[in-house]
Amino acid sequence: MATMLEGRCQTQPRSSPSGREASLWSSGFGMKLEAVTPFLGKYRPFVGRCCQTCTPKSWESLFHRSITDLGFCNVILVKEENTRVQNLLSGRVPGGTGEGQVPDLVKKEVQRILGHIQAPPRPFLVRLFSWALLRFLNCLFLNVQLHKGQMKMVQKAAQAGLPLVLLSTHKTLLDGILLPFMLLSQGLGVLRVAWDSRACSPALRALLRKLGGLFLPPEASLSLDSSEGLLARAVVQAVIEQLLVSGQPLLIFLEEPPGALGPRLSALGQAWVGFVVQAVQVGIVPDALLVPVAVTYDLVPDAPCDIDHASAPLGLWTGALAVLRSLWSRWGCSHRICSRVHLAQPFSLQEYIVSARSCWGGRQTLEQLLQPIVLGQCTAVPDTEKEQEWTPITGPLLALKEEDQLLVRRLSCHVLSASVGSSAVMSTAIMATLLLFKHQKGVFLSQLLGEFSWLTEEILLRGFDVGFSGQLRSLLQHSLSLLRAHVALLRIRQGDLLVVPQPGPGLTHLAQLSAELLPVFLSEAVGACAVRGLLAGRVPPQGPWELQGILLLSQNELYRQILLLMHLLPQDLLLLKPCQSSYCYCQEVLDRLIQCGLLVAEETPGSRPACDTGRQRLSRKLLWKPSGDFTDSDSDDFGEADGRYFRLSQQSHCPDFFLFLCRLLSPLLKAFAQAAAFLRQGQLPDTELGYTEQLFQFLQATAQEEGIFECADPKLAISAVWTFRDLGVLQQTPSPAGPRLHLSPTFASLDNQEKLEQFIRQFICS
User: Fold this and answer.
1) With contact defined as beta carbons under 8 Å apart, do 510 and 504 qualify?
2) pTM to 2 decimal places
3) Tens digits of per-residue pLDDT, 250-308?
4) Pairing assessment for the beta strands 686-687 and 72-74 based on DSSP bridges
5) How many CA within 13 A on the CB side of residue 609?
6) Under DSSP, is residue 297 helix (H, G, I), strand (E, B) or coil?
7) Which residues pair with 686 in a beta bridge?
């Protein structure tokens, strides 16, 4: 297993920290420490296998057990000849075919659009930029880790003769530079990157085009009946088709640019995916191999997270100054950041298109599903899926048939879910989670050592990987050094330190870091909050754990509470795969609660024990379902759930772990509850942006009063506004100045506003 901290220290010397900090560390680590040895060093999960439900043939190919043992490599420790291979830079640039007689005016317009989309890559410029980038990355990063087995899967896929399309998360603008450099150094050629023109100035766009970048022309988003829009979309489609035919790999970002306040799934990314899907469907290429990609950092470079400045484009000189500032801040500093690049198993787009259409079914809006239950008008949860689309449909996607639009949206959601689910968890995310949700008042370093190791084991146990390894002492020193602006180290007694999170906005930063850990425990966190909601009306919130463990919880009641919370939580957070039904997810949540020991089955008198499978008769229903495998609680037949009951486990670790799981969702749920309370004083009607600013200011004021700074996040504010709009709390009406929000007549009464707030607060564990 490659070491991320210690291994790098052996290859390059590092400057020592300041005297005071060194004194603190020496006093805090004046003990013998053991290395982090996950599962006794015998197992580390190989994550990133493709969906066995949607792409079973791809799941069996391009993978062999031997690649899991190949270990890691540091992709920024390369030789210069890795970036000097001429044949990798000689890919043909898609352009016009020159066939037929085209009027000069149209030809000039096509050339103008082509010039906006791309420019011929300059081999010398690519080599020069790669040379400079290599030195910049070595100054900025401690290392950039890549699993050699994952790289081997992608290299094998590239040899199949089909075009590669990499679909990636988007943490920082640096992703679009780091990933092409990595693939070029690994021998896969120049990666064509689909950039967002809103994030770059004209000068920066010109440079990126010469390095292989692609930009969508603004005319492509015009209406369907616009001649300029039709021509621009046709040119882009031709460029993508010839790019795929030429075999050049393409990178598309599925998430919005960093710092953007909006839906998580990128409208621009969906538009590019739509062009690829259309090229495969019309037979320009027989197939394309899609590769989910994720890049994680233990400290993401600062991105604007302000409502007014989130969409400001990055200029060429601004970027250059940012690079110089980063180099200056890192000069002589040992606190460089680490990164992990994850390449998931490639899968066939053609296979997904064929199989995905069979998973489509009817859906209902959040207002139809949840509003009657919130208002107490009914108790039954409708047996249907939630329809929630926050990403706007742009011109290129609107040009497709409605069936193909749905295919592109669900494919994008599926791949983004796979990318996020296979992302490595960094050490700073673990540290931020422990400090925010377990030790806001401070923790001794000796205790933090053990809990860091415990949480690392829990992450690996759930099939997720971590982006670090090495000595526990080095890991904690590295993490706390990167978080030094948000924590205080206090020497309490000889041989130990007290680590205290800084009150105020620093807690908001810790909450943003801890969100990287949420996908690991999301199912259990949803289950724990659902159990909390089920117990809310039965026992006092502050009652002893033993009292709560007396109550029996029926499986049907648990299903209902889980469904209610699932519908309330945004799809951008859950990222459920379209091939997974809500009831299958409910079963997964219940299984996770049983596996982690929080719930134990209660055998009722006269019932068949849950573990007794000897006398079961075959059901007339299919024993195997398309959604997966047998589960621990053995409940494929939901009709048998009536007689199954559970209790909260009385093991000593359960109360703390239950509280920990509930707190993982508390920033979002508390923000939603405060948004419900804000309905009484919000100034409506207002624009969506204006009301979001009002709510964000309210969250900040409440944070100052109550100390819950983890909720003072503009992204949580806009998520609450959009959820309330879908729920029917806020309604949108057109106006000459643009759409405006106003309070719906149903929730104009204080009684219904209080019902909404109480519905949300039942899931919050204080």
Assistant:
1) no
2) 0.88
3) 999 999 887 777 889 999 999 999 999 999 999 999 999 999 999 999 988 754 444 44
4) unpaired
5) 4
6) strand
7) 741
